[in-house]
Amino acid sequence: MMGKTFAEKLLSKKAGRNASAGDIVIVSPDYCISHENASSISQTFYKITNKVWNPDRIVLTLDHTVPASTESYANSHRVIRRFAADQGIAHFYDMNRHGGICHQIMCQEVYAAPGRLIVGTDSHTCTSGAMGAFATGIGRSEMASVWALGEIWLKVPETIRINVHGRFGKGVYAKDLILTLCGMLGAGGASYKCLEFHGEGIQRMSVAERMTICNMAVEMDAKAAVCRPDEKVRAMMDKKGMNENVDWIWADEDAKYCNVMDIDLKDLGPSVAKPNRVDNLAGIEEVEGIHIDQAFIGACTNGRLEDLRIAADILRGRQVCVRTIVIPASCEVMSDALREGIIADLMEAGCTVMPPGCGPCIGVSGGVIGDGETCIATSNRNFKGRMGSRQGQIYLASPATAAASALSGCITDPRKI
Predict the structure, then answer these.
(1) pTM score, two decimals?
(2) Contact call for residues 367 and 323 (beta carbons, < 8 A)
(3) Within this chain, do residues 17 and 51 fall inside the same structural domain, yes or no?
């Protein structure tokens, strides 16, 4: 029998039968994650039934705009708080010391773990693949059904194998790798595929770096992305006291792939996605010197402790010359950054540090851009209007490139700082 990819193997196990790419399976998720859209999901849910199938399998967060920036968001938050209380949902992350962006919470709190199936009503649910889970975004009506019935049907995706070799050079990071891959495959180049990352280049990376990579798989229209779980994932499980047995599932050596790609990290340089597409790739040399009005460091793509540390190392003892907004991915990240002195370094450099959340990344609060303004951001999307005005422009880059650019007021190669 031909070996199986990670997606085929995991979904076969969850379905309780042998399944291959293209097959339809009915599966029960290990965890479901929703944010502010839980308000509208709950309305659909109550048309189906009055009690969720398993409150312990549902995770809810408030992250898109916290504290609420409008009356509409405040009312949505009120509905979600009431729903969580009425349904006995203990895994509810409000705007308190435990809160944060949903994708950060899923990995940080180890709801995402090796061999688990995660569904979420956000396209970047694929971030949890960094923990060795099969994680994918679904629609709101689908989630209402999952809350009610505890199962969903999925088509087993084909898989693209990506072999990552070598080491990053100076000033080059995981964000540069995934932007490069977006440029290689294109915005629709992995449609309904699972991206399976292999190689010593990936295994050397921290879980935070793998989260950056898996987070942006959906920008290529991928169904999911995954990195092989290892001792770094185990360390995160141990940190949270997770003693539960998990399935350390991985692809068979003789698995069949629809495409195989090889990337050597030593060949990469700082990369930037130009407006208004994530696959509009440019090397730093092509865009260096372009004026910016704002820099944004944070979001579910690059708001983790080591991202803030990278930015602080560049900005420490210097002054930014444009608006520079920093948003940690969770309260835990912010607390750790405070203890390390990172937040103080960033604020002394002139950065504005905001509470954890999505904020300007989705153009709802905390640093939207105006007509004719240009922002360099560590987030994951740069289409027109994503961060505010449709007349604004967004360049996507690593925390190092964003920080270096904030110092000069124009897009800058971090290797020159």
Answers:
(1) 0.96
(2) yes
(3) yes
Shared-domain flag, residues 118 and 143: yes
Whether residue 69 contacts residue 364, with contact meaning beta carbons closer than 8 Å, is answered with yes
Asked whether residue 194 falls in the same domain as residue 310, the answer is no
Q: Are residues 207 and 83 in the same domain?
A: no
Nearest to 398 by CA among 247, 87, 180, 132: 180
Residue 334 CA: distances (Å) to CA of 230, 296, 340: 26, 16, 10
Query: What six digits make up the tokens of 42?
Result: 């709950």
From the centroid of its chain, how far is CA 393?
22
Which of 154, 184, 206 is the last residue in one of the domains?
Answer: 154
| 302-351 confidence digits (pLDDT tens) | 999 999 999 999 999 999 999 999 999 999 999 999 999 999 999 999 99
Q: For 28-42, 209-223, 243-257, 298-312, which range has the lowest pLDDT when averaged over its residues? A: 243-257
Q: How many domains is the chain partitioned into structurally?
A: 3
Number of C-beta neighbours around residue 151 at 10 A: 13
Beta bridge partners of 159: 194
Report the distance separating Cα 304 and Cα 332, nearest Å.
10
Containing domain of residue 304, as a range? 270-416
Run of H or E including 353: strand 352-353
